[in-house]
């Protein structure tokens, strides 16, 4: 695990910070610190334009291999880029799912033709992706998906429903886990399909949340089509590929996520000093615990990133989701307690939530999305510790 950086790395850090300072202004100034979790509905067109600006500067897909259009940066430099991006207030990435999930998975499992056809739009910031995993009866239990696909006349015909699909209404593509073997159950018979979103047979419906926003969606597939050459891997490889993709999700961008958490904690500390909450010894103790917990998340991530970058999950990676979800839940509560009575007030019309109010409400979902805390504990017990598997009862 590397917790310090060379002089060359620090020089690179200055280059990143300088570019961001030069470009996060003018038309992009309003995007600073916007568009993150709970705020993903904000400025979608402007953030798409920002993706194109990043691409012009060579700052998309920085860790991808050059043959796929990336810069091939070292892990250290990738960590620096994500940290400086968050430190500068870079907006939530519209291209995150394509760059962090779909792209690395296509690079790992796709054919050369699929890579040539699908990766350049991600690098250029012109094509955006969403994730078709969860279903109404298969949230954390991915092996229970019911969406089906049948190959007919050179096309996959897809029927089913996905839910909690972030930014589906802004995406050109969706990677979909579907059951392609009739009568199959569990992990068997699943395939990984790449599906164009703008076509008849796909309906996107927004889901309004506690925050009043609706970046999540339901997506209905009513015999939607995708070409046979948009199957990633072989029929039946869906579970293997889906698990590798989740490994990429625990990758270097986690350091950027932690810098977003750092920004939230800094805002809480600023308010505590301003309104006198910092004089409360119990609140000071909770702030100190939050600060220490965030450092632990960072060190575990660096340890996790010391392993292979092929989508496989080391044991250290298996604890990450549970750790950050619980830490962020506690931070949301801390923010409300530091705000005091102001936590329940809105400044005036149009009565929009403040930054920390929105964070608190959104953080209530941290223990659910991306794998519930209960599922994460099972993963740690069974895969990391080798404990007996929990009995599965299926109808």
From TrEMBL:
Organism: Metapseudomonas resinovorans NBRC 106553
Molecular function terms from GO: flavin adenine dinucleotide binding; oxidoreductase activity, acting on the CH-CH group of donors
InterPro entries per the UniProt record, alphabetical: Acyl-CoA_Oxase/DH_mid-dom (IPR006091), Acyl-CoA_Oxase/DH_mid-dom_sf (IPR046373), AcylCo_DH-like_C (IPR036250), AcylCo_DH/oxidase_C (IPR009075), AcylCoA_DH/ox_N (IPR013786), AcylCoA_DH/ox_N_sf (IPR037069), AcylCoA_DH/oxidase_NM_dom_sf (IPR009100), Mycobact_Acyl-CoA_DH (IPR052161)
Domain Acyl-CoA oxidase/dehydrogenase middle: 130-222
Keyword Oxidoreductase appears in the UniProt entry: yes
SUPFAM superfamilies: Acyl-CoA dehydrogenase C-terminal domain-like, Acyl-CoA dehydrogenase NM domain-like
EC number: 1.3.99.-
Domain Acyl-CoA dehydrogenase/oxidase C-terminal: 236-384
GO cellular component, one term: plasma membrane
Keywords: FAD, Flavoprotein, Oxidoreductase
UniProt name for this protein: Putative acyl-CoA dehydrogenase
Cofactor requirement: FAD
UniProt similarity note: Belongs to the acyl-CoA dehydrogenase family.
Alphabetical list of Pfam families matching this protein: Acyl-CoA_dh_1, Acyl-CoA_dh_M, Acyl-CoA_dh_N
Acyl-CoA dehydrogenase/oxidase N-terminal domain ranges (all copies): 9-125
Keyword Transport belongs to the record: no
């Amino acid at each position: 695990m590397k917790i310090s950086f060379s002089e060359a790395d620090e020089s690179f850090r200055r280059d990143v910070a300088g570019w961001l300072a030069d470009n996060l202004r003018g038309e992009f100034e309003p995007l600073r610190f916007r568009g993150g979790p709970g705020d993903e509905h904000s400025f979608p067109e402007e953030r798409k334009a920002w993706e194109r600006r990043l691409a012009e500067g060579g700052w998309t897909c920085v860790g991808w291999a050059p043959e796929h259009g990336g810069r091939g940066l070292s892990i250290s430099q990738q960590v620096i880029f994500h940290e400086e991006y968050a430190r500068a207030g870079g907006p939530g990435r519209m291209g995150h799912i394509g760059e962090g999930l779909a792209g690395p998975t296509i690079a790992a499992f796709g054919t050369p033709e699929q890579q040539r056809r699908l990766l350049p739009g991600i690098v250029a910031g012109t094509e955006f992706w969403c994730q078709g995993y969860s279903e109404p009866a298969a949230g954390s239990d991915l092996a229970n998906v019911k969406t089906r696909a049948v190959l007919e006349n050179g096309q996959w015909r897809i029927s089913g429903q996905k839910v909690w699909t972030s930014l589906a209404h802004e995406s050109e593509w969706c990677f979909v886990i579907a059951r392609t073997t009739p009568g199959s159950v569990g992990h068997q018979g699943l395939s990984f399909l790449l599906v164009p979103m703008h076509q008849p047979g796909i309906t996107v419906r927004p889901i309004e949340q506690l925050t009043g926003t609706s970046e999540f969606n339901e997506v209905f597939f009513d015999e939607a089509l995708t070409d046979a050459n948009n199957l990633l891997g072989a029929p039946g490889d869906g579970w293997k590929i889906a698990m590798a993709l989740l490994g990429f999700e625990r990758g270097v961008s986690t350091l950027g996520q932690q810098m977003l958490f750092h920004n939230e904690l800094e805002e809480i500390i600023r308010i505590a000093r301003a309104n006198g909450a910092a004089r409360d010894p119990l609140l000071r103790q909770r702030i100190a615990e939050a600060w220490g917990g965030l450092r632990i998340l960072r060190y575990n991530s660096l340890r996790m990133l010391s392993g292979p970058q092929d989508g496989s999950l080391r044991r250290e990676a298996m604890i990450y989701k549970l750790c950050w979800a619980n830490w962020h839940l506690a931070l949301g509560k801390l923010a409300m307690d530091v705000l005091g009575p102001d936590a329940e007030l809105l400044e005036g019309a149009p009565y929009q939530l403040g930054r920390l109010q929105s964070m608190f409400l959104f953080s209530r979902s941290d223990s659910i999305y991306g794998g519930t805390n209960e599922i994460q504990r099972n993963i740690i017990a069974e895969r990391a510790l080798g404990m007996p598997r929990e009995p599965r009862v299926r109808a």
